[in-house]
Fold this protein.
Amino acid sequence: MYKLQKVIGLSLMTGLLLSGCGQAGDPEIIMPDTPMQPSAAVSGGAAAEPVAAAEETAAEETQEAQPSAGTGEAHTVYLITMDLADSYWQSIDKGCKQAAEELGNITYKWIGPDTHDDALQSACVDQAVSEGAEAILIAANSAEGVNGSLQKAADAGCKIIYVDSAASFDCVTALATDNEAAGKTAADSMKKALAERGITSGTIGVMGVTQDTASCVARETGFRAAFEGTDFVLADTVYMMDDAANIKNAVTAGQGQGYVAYFGTNEGTSVAAGEAVRESGQDDLVVGFDTSDAMLALIADGTAYATMQQNPERMGHDGMVIAVQALEGTYTDTNTKTDTGVTVITADSM
């Protein structure tokens, strides 16, 4: 099987807090280096077709992991995300619930911290273990910051499955987006739109979450690489730092300097950039990530040109199925990875 590649290391936060499994924030993605096909996308371990990137087929044209007949034994599975508020995490939860219903006899619970914080998420892992979780699906807040609690979970016999965001701790499998490839797809979409407008040079604003958000760093890496050798200049990244005003102010400043386009590396940055453009009344080009109602509204009214749609429901559904298969011994691989793909969403494709 393919093995989980290196994940960007972040500083380890210490201290475990048993409070704070609440709400707020935006999704960030960490993805292993190379796009992969699912290693066990159907019962019995047969590989499914990979999800197409760019403007090809969406997730429904790929084969989801199918629940096996199972042993009928009851299992307790927890989903732990970076927070509970964002629609992206709600989609992962929806996929988990669907699979749990299909499988039957599953006790399922979704928890997460109030804000993006390693110690708070570690506390949620500890809570899941104390409440009898046999498997934990987790969108890790950082690559290393929750590893201590994941080690305790593994020592207690929990199966670890990453959905959307992988830590560097060993797992059964990681289901996520190949972010560098997705960043390149976003750049290709922007280049196409700029060409249609007759724009062949100029400065492009780049909006990040934090300097340590590995997923968005990977997206930015792919995006910047795709513009190498062109006459476009990519500005230094502006970081949101949990404050959308930072992005809106950067867009306003960019408009004053004649920027030709803006790239948002996640939902929060994309929506903030789009809203700033809408409020200004200018016709600037915006390309971003994710498909919240707010982002889709920006696409629909022409404020934003395109957004990269990930497949969080599939991450949750297939992650739940594989978790139960691992518990029942029908999925025996470790450290595998599945690229769940992206699809370009524009007004024409809605």
Remarks:
- Residues 179-309 form a domain with the Rossmann fold fold (CATH 3.40.50.2300).
- The chain has nine helices and 13 strands.
